[in-house]
Amino acid sequence: MPNLTLEALKALAVKVLVNSQTSQANANMVADALVAADADGLSSHGVSRLPAYADQAKSGKVDGFAVPDVVLTSAAAVRVDARSGFAFPAVAQGLTEAAALVKQTGIVGVGIGRSHHMGAAGYHVERMAQQGLIALGMTNSPAAIAPWGGQQRLFGTNPIAFACPRVAAPPLVIDLSLSKAARGKVKLAADQQQSIPEGWAVDTDGQPTTDAQAALDGSMLPMGDAKGAALVLLVEILSATLTGSNYGYEAGSFFTGSGTAPNIGHFFILIDPQRFALQNFSQRFELLLAAIEAQQGTRLPGERRLRLRRQAEQDGVFIPDSLYANLQQRAAAG
Amino acid sequence: MPNLTLEALKALAVKVLVNSQTSQANANMVADALVAADADGLSSHGVSRLPAYADQAKSGKVDGFAVPDVVLTSAAAVRVDARSGFAFPAVAQGLTEAAALVKQTGIVGVGIGRSHHMGAAGYHVERMAQQGLIALGMTNSPAAIAPWGGQQRLFGTNPIAFACPRVAAPPLVIDLSLSKAARGKVKLAADQQQSIPEGWAVDTDGQPTTDAQAALDGSMLPMGDAKGAALVLLVEILSATLTGSNYGYEAGSFFTGSGTAPNIGHFFILIDPQRFALQNFSQRFELLLAAIEAQQGTRLPGERRLRLRRQAEQDGVFIPDSLYANLQQRAAAG
User: Among A128, A222, B30, B208, fewest CB within 10 Å belongs to which?
Assistant: First the structure.
């Protein structure tokens, strides 16, 4: 299989979605985000998700024609009802509304409810930082993590993303899930009947396990143990309680066409970096980054991602044969 | 040494501060926060800090007479210059201003610059949640943690605190520092010539160490390793870059009367829980907490703290002899 250009991959993704009960406008936004993830080397959040997305749109588990409802509930609060549609149009519209407000208010909050998988969380905040804004974003997701000391999954892996503008460089982007390891790695180990390192997961009795299948049946452990578990709860509250969305344990899977809708939530905060500062923000920020880079063995978050992106823009991205065949078939089916 | 009532301890703390170049109003706010920490069992953030606070006020490293400068820079942005004074008056005034705004704006940001040790971070956010607001707070602090992969301390232990109101119960409060272990524990081990567990710290070459003294000379490791290191950076940016305050590596110590002022920064976000929700916030929040508590072996964050507080309100708190003698001497010195 030769590499696909990003343009070709996006066109293919749009076709798959439009053939699967999704509007052209929504398909464009979903495809753009998935292809961007592939370009950044985040293939687990790229077009590998498309078959599951398409199945869900076809079954109605996600509404591919949904038009998000965006309401400015007060001067700096944007409430978005994704209406059980794809996350990408809901997030984009909420953030666009917020970005137009933040120069007047200094900070804006965006709560997005009844939503779906928002892909790589960094994608959304990076776009805001490209406009000169600091952006913090988070989401809950279907249950993967038990409460600390407990046995049953309640919370998602609940990623946090953060982006900060720079004057003469792309924004600094931080994007991390709060599980110690990605659930995908455990799935892979289970498929290959391999064990997993201690500390990644507990079984259905809440006991530490290195058995990958027992881990899949059980719960992932949070990064940072008890402290990380508290952060998982914090993100669940801001993403799901605050927006009135499903908790992880109420949410249907992101991966299967059947079952109940995920209807999870996201929360974003946009900040105008000039409104809180006693000194020049950009100068001070570059000073900090230089202090980090002056130490051997360090690198700034996102360096690898940006390098891969430049490479993908030039050379395209590699898509596995079986996935490519699957997407081509879906694209042709209309 | 008998236990002291909280009232007696506060009166003693106020006297110590007023005798050490601090205004009565500022002394009251500092004392209130420190005694609250002792009541909650957080003695490392209680009146044990007073000798160092008093020494710094006497030397002018912290300005005990500072009146914070609070400016509403835009509709939802409060900028506070603590003017190298104690943190508590600056945080209190910034949050009071923000709480008055948030019903109109839905969210308010409070940047507090040129500040000092803000004590137990949970203290500040809990007060906001008692007024029905969700509050998120964070601060940087003098250098303790190296950038990931690096050798020299740049960042503080950078705590995050979060509080969320409940209808028929005290607010849920999360309060955690981002170092894997408290630096105080390493200090104690070094004093007793004991080793520390692997994973807590690295030496000045950036190599893992179990030697407590080498760890003190070196850097603490973040909770959650590389992911935690990214969160440490996030908090440093929002607390210090955003507010125009000193970075951890620029900040003077919280513990010594001499040296440069800390002049670090804090950032708070207040949220009106009703402005982002598609469903009733309080009902949904209680549902989540009940789901956590339904699992054996779990407990809600802050349960221990509240139990100790009730006990302290009844029985007072124990203050070690040497500390009590120190405080009495300082209280009498005026």
Answer: B208
